[in-house]
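Inverse folding, one chain.
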């Protein structure tokens, strides 16, 4: 009985360690997403642009750099001027 409990605690600790690693990976990924565009247009924005905020989450395309966006055939927004 006691042995089983210790095993459960061990598994829980392991899951917690894995989860904390996962979230820090997410933060790194987020830092690389500096520009956002829509799959329905060919314009990219700063995420804080009013037009970027109108893009539905499921239509968002993220780019790490201007070069990245332009390689994908996107051009800069005239409102936020990235
Ligand atoms: Zn914009």
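Residues assigned per position:
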């Amino acid at each position: 009985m006691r042995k089983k409990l210790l095993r459960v605690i061990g598994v829980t600790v392991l899951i917690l360690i894995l989860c904390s690693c996962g979230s820090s990976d997410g933060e790194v990924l987020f830092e690389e997403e500096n520009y956002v565009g829509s799959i329905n247009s060919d314009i990219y924005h700063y995420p804080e642009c009013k037009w970027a905020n109108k893009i539905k989450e499921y239509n968002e395309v993220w780019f790490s750099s201007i070069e990245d966006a332009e390689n994908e055939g996107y051009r800069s927004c005239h409102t936020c001027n990235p």
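Strands lie at 35-38, 43-45, 60-63, 75-76. The chain has two helices and four strands.
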